[in-house]
Amino acid sequence: MKVTSSSSDGSIRLLQITDTHLFEATDGGLLSVNTGESFKAVVDAVIEQECVYDALLATGDISQDHSEASYQRFEQGIAPLEKPCYWLPGNHDYKPNMSTVIPSDQIQQVEHVLLGEHWQMILLDSQVVSVPHGRLSDQQLELLDEKLAQHSDRHTLVLLHHHPILVGSAWLDQHTLKDAQDFWQVVEKHSNVKAVLCGHVHQDMNVLHKGVRVMATPSTCVQFKPNSDDFALDTLSPGWRELTLEASGNLETVVKRLPIGSFQPDFNSAGY
């Protein structure tokens, strides 16, 4: 699988949307936010702002109710973006129903993608069925090790759903990537991992860890308040992330959001 650069300088531009939490029902809501409407608003904003990108990334929790129809709604929802989409499962996803819409004209569920001439992307499955935390199987760790060695000349972006470092919120950090040290041991064996991109935490994170940039991205629906030990929702609006992967290995990124006050949740909620 390969993505071709549309840029004259050979850089690859990516757009990440994550944690859409869609339902079969059109009025399906998460913490009083209609997730279908907020997802559509994000897609409309991307189109309106004329964002430039070569591919879409969807880093899990596509669905909230596990239904086939929710995945079909995602497929239909991204159709106007007219770019290939690479997705992976989150803890709320049901992989048998994800598979009913792939491969489609747009959506691909693959483990490895060559990005232009200088980058590669490795997509890992961190789902543990029926629990909110994540874990990478031996097979997934071997995949990571193999692709990093096989394409040692390529800068690498690694994708997974669960956050592989703590975010500083006790309730969220219960549901992190378990045995994350195994993941980092593989990464540290190689020199070509430039960045790790995840979803799951419904907030913006962009930090350096062991020399690797680790990023999480706002959900297209509700946002979790950073640095809160107990469950808490943020007032920030739904958003997405744009990334530019330069031939040099440098990475530029920006988070964009819907207008202030868009799709506010029920702040009295104690969880979901």
Write the layout of secondary structure elements.
Blueprint: E1 2-3, E2 12-17, E3 29-30, E4 33-34, H1 35-48, E5 55-58, H2 68-78, E6 85-87, H3 95-98, E7 107-108, E8 112-115, E9 119-123, H4 138-150, E10 155-159, H5 170-173, H6 180-189, E11 193-198, E12 205-209, E13 212-216, E14 239-245, E15 251-257
Parallel strand pairs: 1-8, 2-5, 5-6, 6-7, 9-10, 10-11, 11-13
Antiparallel strand pairs: 2-14, 3-4, 8-9, 12-13, 14-15
Helix pairs in contact: 4-6
Structure characterization notes:
- The protein has 272 residues and is of the alpha/beta class.
- The protein has a single domain (2-256), classed as Purple Acid Phosphatase, chain A, domain 2 (4-Layer Sandwich).
- Helices cover 21% and strands 24% of the residues.
- The chain is built from 6 helices and 15 strands.
- It has helices spanning 35-48, 68-78, 95-98, 138-150, 170-173, 180-189; strands at 2-3, 12-17, 29-30, 33-34, 55-58, 85-87, 107-108, 112-115, 119-123, 155-159, 193-198, 205-209, 212-216, 239-245, 251-257.
- The protein has a 7-stranded mixed sheet, covered by helices on one side. The protein has a 6-stranded mixed sheet with strand order 7-6-5-2-14-15, with no helix packed on it. It has a two-stranded antiparallel ribbon with strand order 3-4.
- Helix 4 (138-150) runs parallel beside helix 6 (180-189).
- The mean pLDDT is 96.
Question: How do you describe this structure in short?
Answer:
The chain has 6 helices and 15 strands.
